[in-house]
Structures are given as C-alpha cells and as structure tokens.
Amino acid sequence: MTEKNNDWQMTRRGYNFYEVLSAFQKAIRRGDGKLAGYWALELYDSGFETHVWNRLRIIACEDVAEPITREIEALKQSHDFVNKGKKKGEPNKPGRLMVAKATLLLAAATKSRDADHLICLVYEDNTIAAETLLADLEAAKGDAKKEIPGYALDMHTVRGRKMGRNNRNEFLKAEHHALKPRVPGIFDEELGLK
C-alpha cells in the first residue's frame, strides 16, 4: 500500500482529520454516543461538514442493522434547510443539531457489519484470522481535549499502518466484536463467533 502523508489536514483542536474520522465511526460502532458526538462536532466545526454527512451515510449502511438511512437523509435535508444562506464554517450553525441527532441515532442503533463482511469475506474471498484484536476504550471526561483512542489507529490511518495494523481480516473481526449493541450476523461462523 502506498504511504500517504495526510498530516496536513488538521481539525480546529489540532487532531489529524483521518484519525478523527476513524474515531468517529468506531465510537458509533461501540455505541458510545457521547464520544461519537464529540468527534462529529470536532469535524463539523473544523469545516468538514460534507465529510461528516458522508461518513454518517456510510455508517448507516456499513455498521447498522436497522433500516435507518431514511432518518439520516431526513436529518441531512433538515440540516441543509436550516443552514440555507449560512456560510461554511460559521460558528454555531443550527445544522449542528441535526449532525448530533444523526450521530446519536446511529450510536444507539443495533449493529451489524454484514454488508462490509459480504464484500470482504464473500466477494473478495478472504479468510478470517484466528486471533482477535480488541482495543479498550478509555472514558474521556470533562472538557479536556480527548486523545485519539488506540482502536482508531488501524489500517485506514497513517499511524495505524506504521504500527503494523495492516491485516484486514484482523480488523474485520475486531470491529465486529466491538459492535454494541450487536445482532447475530450471517457471517458469524466465518468470523469464528459460532
């Protein structure tokens, strides 16, 4: 894999954009609405609102078992309506509420990664690694700047790849185990969960 230097894209509090995007999705997978909301608003307030909405749509398809895409699209339409005429990056845009609501809905939703597993395990015919890597999520408290959690540094980030976290099968299995709440999936046997 070609190494990309993405360190130049930083959020307003000095985070690497790609690491925050990863932490955002993984907090939703783990059902942590508070931390997911922190990362969502960090991205949004840093001028990455298009990326936030794109990621919310991806999460609705990739990580959530419930048919929730209509709710996310309705919130996006409401966001666009209340922000009509507002400048990108304007502080306290009313659309932040819709981002927060979409984030909380996805964090509370029942999870399943079957769509992603279908692509990776069936179509691309990969085998499942025997070992599972689970990262512990440390509770971040107060208004202090949050740390990028270790589980966010994976094969999708520069630091994660430098740490040797390149095994997609281990990634798939670890992220599946991290879903909260989780329903049984049709690929549980292939992931060694039956």
Provide tags for this entry.
Zinc Finger, Delta Prime, domain 3, 8 helices, 194 residues, 0% strand, mainly alpha, globular
Measure the end-to-end span. 33 Å
Tell me the fraction of residues in β-strands, as a range: under 5%
CATH class: Mainly Alpha
What is the helical fraction, as a range of percent? 40-55%
Explain the overall architecture.
The protein has helices spanning 17-29, 33-45, 49-62, 69-82, 96-108, 114-123, 158-162, 168-178. The model is unreliable at 126-142 (pLDDT under 50). The relative contact order is 0.17. The protein has one domain (17-178): Up-down Bundle (Zinc Finger, Delta Prime, domain 3). It is mainly alpha-helical.
Which helices and strands occur, and which strands form pairs?
Blueprint: H1 17-29, H2 33-45, H3 49-62, H4 69-82, H5 96-108, H6 114-123, H7 158-162, H8 168-178
Task: Give a quick precis of the structure.
Helix content is 48%, strand content 0%. The chain is built from eight helices and no strands.
